[in-house]
C-alpha cells in the first residue's frame, strides 16, 4: 500500500475520533515514549550506541515505508480541526526538540527521539499541499515563522525536509482561483519572514558534491522560482533581500557545470524580465562584468551538452535584458563587451548567433550611439558585413532561425547607418561603395525577398478580413499587424531604413539603389508607404516622436 492509498482509507469512527481529539501534552523534562501517529505506526526507538549517536534523522523514504506498513482501513477526515492539530503537533515537536537540544547539548542520544518525531511531524504536513484552502491556518497560527526557523536547524536532514515541504506548499500551478489565492497568502507570509535570506544561508551550508544536499539546493531554487511566479510584482523586493547577489555569486563560483548552475541562470533571467529596477541593481553589483566573464568561456569553445547550451543562452538573455536600460549600456561599453561579442563573431562558434542579438540590443536607438562609434573603431565592420553578405546557417541547438540571423544583422547595420558620425560614418559609407557597390545590390535583393514574404501574408490577412461579418476590432487589427511582423515586415523595415539613410547620405549610392529598384520593377512608393506605416507604429512618447519625425523626413527626401 503506497502513501496515496493510505490517505484514501477511512478508519473506524471511534479510532479516527480518538486520533483527532488526542490532547496535546505539555512538554516535560522527561524523554517521552513513542506515541501512535495518526498517519502511521509508532516510530521504532533506536538503541543508544556509538554508531547511532549524532547520526542524522532518517531518510524520508524510510518514513514513507513506515506509513505504507500501516493497516488503516478508512479515511481520516481532512478538515480545519485535523489540519490545526497537525500544525500544533508540529509546533510542539519543534519546541520539544529545541528544549532537548538545549538541555542535553553533549548527549545526542537524549535528543535523538525528539528529532525523529520532529522529522515525522514535518512529513505529516505534506498533506497540507492537497488542501490549499487550509493554508490560512499556517499563517493565522504564526506557524510560518516556526517552519522557517527549522531551516537553521543543526541537523541538515531536518533542513532538507523543510525545504521539500515549502517547495510543495508554494507551488502555484493550480488553475483554481481560490487555491491560487491561498498560495499567494502563504507566499506573502514567507516573504515577510525573510525566506530569501534564509534560503541563501541554507544553500551556503549545503555541499554540492553530496547528492542529497545537491538535490536540496535544487529544491531551494525551486522555492525561489515558485515565489517569482506567484508574486511577479515583487521581483525587486525579492532581489533586494539578497537574491540577486546570491545568484551572481553562484554563477561566478568556480564549480563544474551542473543542473543547479543552469537553474541559477534561469532564475536570473526570470528576475530581469520587464523590471528596470532589478536591471539597475544588477548594474550596481557589477553584474555585467560577471555575465561577460561567464560568457567569455564560450568565445573559442562550444558548450559540451544541450544543458550547457541552455545555460549559455540564459546568460545571453540576461545580458540582452539589461542592455534595454541606458545606464547598463555604458557599463557594457566600458567592460569591453563589444570586443567580446566581436571576437565571438570571428571565432564562428555557437556563441556568435547570440552575440549578434546582444550587439543588436547594445547599438539600437539614440542610446546606442557610443557603442556604434566604438564598434567601428574596433574594426567591427570587417566582421559584420561578411555576415550581411552571406548569413551563416543557424544551428538547431541554439533554437534560432536563419531569418532571425538576417534580422539581427540588418538591425545592426541599420543602427550603424543611423548612429555613426564623422570619420566612423565615412568608413561605413565606403563599405557600401567598395567592390562595385555589391553591398547595395545585396540590400536591394533583401528588400525584394522580404517584400515578397510580406505580400504573401497580406493576401492571407485580406482573406481573413473578408470572412469577418463585421469590421475587425482594434485587437484583431493588432493581431494582424503582429502576424505581418513575424512574417518578415520587421526585417523589411530595417532594410528599407538602411535604404533611406544611404540615399540621403550619398547621391551615388541613391542612384545605384534606384537602378536596382528599376531592374526588379520595384517602386519607390512601396518603400515610402512601408516606412510611413513603420513611423505610425513607433509610439507617442517624446523620444519616439523624434524618431518618427526623423523617419518621415527621410521618406520625404527619398
Main sheet makeup: none
User: What is the count of β-strands?
Assistant: 0
Radius of gyration: 32 Å
C-alpha geometry = elongated
Topology order in helix (H) and strand (E) letters: HHHHHHHHHHHHHHHHHHHHHHHHHHH
Helix run count:
27
Low-confidence stretches: 1-7, 11-58, 66-74
What structural category characterises the helix and strand content?
A: mainly alpha
Mean pLDDT: 85
- First and last CA, distance: 80 Å
Percent strand = under 5%
Helix content: over 70%
List key phrases describing it:
558 residues; mainly alpha; 27 helices; elongated; disordered N terminus
In short:
This protein is an all-alpha fold. Helices cover 70% and strands 0% of the residues.
